Amino acid sequence: xxxxxxxxxxxxxxxxxxxxxxxxxxxxxxxxxxxxxxxxxxxxxxxxxxxxxxxxxxxxxxxxxxxxxxxxxxxxxxxxxxxxxxxxxxxxxxxxxxxxxxxxxxxxxxxxxxxxxxxxxxxxxxxxxxxxxxxxxxxxxxxxxxxxx
Length: 149
Fold this sequence. Notes:
Elements: E1 2-17, E2 20-27, E3 30-36, H1 43-54, E4 59-60, E5 66-68, H2 70-73, E6 76-81, H3 103-119, E7 123-126, E8 133-148
Parallel strand pairs: 3-6, 6-7
Antiparallel strand pairs: 1-2, 1-3, 1-8, 4-5
Helix pairs in contact: 1-3
């Protein structure tokens, strides 16, 4: 599993339907997390990621030190499915997605990951699996972290 984590002031999610954008939802201050599910991933990976992301200390204290997490501050997470994170560029210039999980497994795991966050009491807004999405984000910092495992 791979994730790109961005600290945001806010993020909005739209689904592209033909030539129009349909508003799906937004979050305030928190984390915008793009997630790629790989073939080898297990439910243990989901619990690891949820624990790591919910306690990731990327929000400042009064001294400007990164000491607080989404959970500490009661901030939100926007979770976006992103199979292109599983791309390999080992050969040529066209990405290979051989490591990406099957559509059905990735969809199941993605929504299960969102459920884990919600079960932890974290406000989580999910993207729509398999949809063409437009995400507007107001990054804060910027703070961007790549997580894999």
